[in-house]
Amino acid sequence: MTFLQAFLVSTISCALLCLLTSLLLQVQKQRRRGWHNLVADLYRLDMVELSAIAIDYLTPRGNQIDIEPKEIWEFLGGYQGLRKMRENAETMLALAAYAQRWNFAEAVIVTERMRLDAATLRRAVRHVELGLIPSKMLRRYQMTIPLHAQEAASAYYLMRQRLLALYGTSHAGLYPKLATAL
Amino acid sequence: MLDWVLWAGFFLGDAALFSILLYRSRSREFPVFTTLVGMGAASEVARFTIFLYGSHLWYARVYWSYYFLDFVLQLGVVWEIARIVMRPTGSWLRDARRQFILGGAAGVLLAAALSWMLSPPTSNHFDLLVARCDLFLNLVVCELFVVMLLTAKRLGLGFRNHVFSLVVGWSGWVIVATMVDLLQSYYSSNHIFDLMDNLGKSAYLAALVYWMIQFWLEEPARQEISPELRDYILALHNQVKNDLDRVKEQR
Asked: B177 to chain A, minimum CA–CA distance in Å?
């Protein structure tokens, strides 16, 4: 076995083993997190501006070009804002699954719907990330980036609304803290 | 002497775990894993008997037949775990199965390439083949677990106690076994080779003990999904799939 072969086999195999160990630890950590830990992990986002952008996308009315693409990008907090939305989406899914403990049937349906919204959100953020690469290289503003960001914001908005509605109807005790955190 | 102890340990461990899986009715949820463990116990007896009273030829035949069957069943167990984790409501989540299969296929190719590159300083072709097959199998299982855990994390899927214990025990064993395979490919000394071999076997024994404890314990009861609810979820998945197909066609 040549040195290069040995190096490749060892490096890739060890990287795989480390990745597997790290994923297992993450899953174990996730399993041990209680409801309050989950809520504490949520990032605070400006929901006033985010809601305005999402509603503009979800319920089209007259003057659909009222909000400029650059404004959408700024209101959502740019790429950092999108990253926070993506991470919050994971936590919100865990919170929806948590509600299955006391409101099984509704929580199962809501979790499934939220999973589909989360898939839309991730796909839109991925489009933004792909769009940012040529945008940075060519130093030219890509008009499609804010449009995908708006799609992500609308999916996030739907997830949040579904989660709040689920807790609002089934657990009045936890609802206020969740509403404040979101 | 240590080899004999380990051999007896494998048989006793597999037989005890098999009994627990049947007695505590875990075989309903994990039929392939139960088959694998039961077959492991049976093969230990068969190989031990042939080793004492049979010929080398028959030992090799039984060894390779079991090796192939074991490989297929191990892949079956990974599929079984993936089915449990990625079908929380009884139907596959959109994209989950496709991602798992695509990721798994890529993992098999990578494992095949890495195993082919491995050439331990062994004296014969048989040992070389065994070393490559062992590494291939361990890497495939390791990669499939990585793909499954990544997909589950991305989709926000949780693991229940038994299935998580199965993944943890198996991963621990596979990690040690892969390290052993890699180290054995560098060291030709018989003493170190045997030491590593026994380390890998001990990791399997530890996994067996861990599974015995975990599968004996009960996990929180799962609420059953009614047929109406399952139909609704299925319709929801189909509707989303149809909508997406329509959007793709329009593009």
From this structure: 11
